[in-house]
Amino acid sequence: VVSMFRISNTVVGALNVLSLLLGIAAVGSSAYIHVRGGSDCQKVLQVPLLVGGIFVVLVSALGIVGSLCRVNGALYAYLLVTFMVIVGLAFFTVFALFVTNRKVGQRVSGKGYGEYRVADFSHWLQRYVVNNKNWDEVKSCLMDAHVCQNLALNGGRNNDSLIFKHFSTTQAGCCKPPVYCGFIMKNATFWEVPKKGPAANNNTDCSTWNNSKEKLCYDCNSCKGGVLANIRNQWRRLTVFNACVLVLVTAIYALGCYAIKNNRSDSHCNHRKPPIP
Question: Which of 33, 165, 34 is nearest to 107 (CA)?
Answer without folding.
Answer: 165
